[in-house]
Amino acid sequence: MSPPRATARLFWGTAATVIVADLVSKLLAERFLMPRYVPHRVMSESRLIDVIKLEAESVDPAALPEAMKGCGAVDAPEFVEHVRRCRR
C-alpha cells in the first residue's frame, strides 16, 4: 500500500486535473457551440414549448411583450397565439 502522503498527492492532483478540464470544456462549449447574438431555431420533439429562456444581456426589457415583463410563469394566451402564428 502507498504511503498516505503519496495517496493524497495522487488524489488532489487528479481532482485538480478533472476540475480544470471541466472548466475548460465548459468555456469552450459556451464560446463555440452557441454563439451569442446569433438567431437560431428552437426545435422540440413535442408541439408545445413550455419554457422560453432569454439571454438577459441581449434583451431590451422595454421592448418585451407585456406578458413577458413579469417574473416567473405567466398566463399569456395572446402571446402563445402570437408564437403559434409565427410558426405557421
Q: What is the global morphology?
A: elongated
Tally of separate domains: 1
End-to-end span in angstroms?
68 Å
Low-confidence region ranges: none
Number of strands: 0
Written account of the structure:
- 0% of the residues are buried.
- It is built from 2 helices and no strands.
- The protein is elongated, with a radius of gyration of 22 Å.
- The protein has one domain (4-87).
- With 88 residues, the chain is mainly alpha-helical.
- The termini are far apart.
Features:
45% helix
Q: What are the SSEs and their pairings?
A:
Layout: H1 4-32, H2 77-87
Task: Give a brief outline of the structure.
This protein is 45% helix and 0% strand. By secondary structure, it is mainly α.
